[in-house]
Design goal:
two-stranded antiparallel ribbon; about 5% strand; 2 strands; mainly alpha; about 160 residues; 6 helices
């Protein structure tokens, strides 16, 4: 069950469910603006750290990673309104990206996606669609709960 670098079922689901979870967390923390700003600050710092660690210095991707992370950190520190807007926008975009990504899993070529790779890893290629569907349902549950809590808070 351990793949090179980790547990394969968790690794294969991380992109889909992880983006939905992070997006939902950014939306949910809209009920707690200070926590939302801290989360945005952490995302910016991690973005800069990973850019410095994994990207060759001097390339466009290096400068974009550093600049993007710096912008997030600056917004989190300097402007409450900008931080809340940026965090909520990022949360919505991550959730929408997750839903768009699931389109490939459920309606196009599930056997060629991470769900298909996991099904092949388990030796049952027909499991690709149920795996993808379970990821969709878990992600939708995260998104629904986050948006529901934000709407209840605003009432």
């Amino acid at each position: 069950i351990l793949a090179q670098g980790g547990i394969f079922p968790l690794i294969s689901a991380a992109g889909y469910v992880g983006s939905a979870l992070l997006g939902a967390l950014l939306i949910y923390t809209g009920t707690l603006p200070q926590v939302q700003r801290l989360l945005l600050l952490l995302i910016g710092a991690v973005c800069m750290g990973m850019t410095m660690w994994y990207t060759p210095v001097g390339g466009l991707d290096f400068y974009l990673g550093i600049f993007g992370g710096l912008v997030l950190v600056a917004m989190a520190i300097k402007s409450r309104r900008a931080a809340v807007a940026a965090a909520t926008w990022m949360g919505v975009m991550l959730c929408l990206y997750s839903l768009y990504d699931f389109r490939t899993d459920l309606w196009m070529h599930a056997e060629l996606t991470d769900a298909g790779l996991l099904a092949q890893y388990w030796g049952e290629p027909l499991l690709a669609y149920p795996i993808a569907l379970s990821w969709v349902l878990v992600s939708l549950a995260f998104m629904y709960r986050a948006m529901r809590s934000l709407i209840r808070k605003r009432r």
